[in-house]
Design a protein that fits this description.
This protein is α+β, with helices and mostly antiparallel strands. The protein has helices at residues 2-8, 20-27, 38-47, 57-62, and strands at residues 13-16, 51-54, 86-87, 92-93.
């Protein structure tokens, strides 16, 4: 999701995932999660040539000048505060 948003504002983005089935899905114009409006953002930015996907770690490391690491969204609201997930009440990382 973060990569699609970075591409939406005009950045050239290469997203890395070690799960090749997710990368194949993304390259085929589908998304492995549901987020309202995300599919359209991904498709629009793929078509514009700003959003790319890979399973190749070395390629991803060499790409661009900024590296962002995003992790999976917890499946439930009961995640312990030490996990570093975002806390909407405080608007910052719960681990800081």
């Amino acid at each position: 999701m973060s990569g699609a948003c970075f591409a939406e504002v005009g950045n050239d983005v290469l997203c890395l995932d070690l799960d090749s089935s997710k990368i194949r899905m993304l390259e085929a114009g589908e998304i492995p999660i549901y987020e309202p409006g995300l599919l359209e953002v991904v498709r629009r930015n793929r078509a514009a040539g700003r959003l790319h996907f890979t399973t190749e770690v070395e390629r991803a490391v060499r790409f661009g000048t900024v590296q962002c690491i995003a992790v999976g969204t917890p499946p439930a609201r009961t995640v312990p505060p030490t996990s570093g997930t975002c806390s909407p009440r405080r608007g910052r990382s719960a681990g800081t």
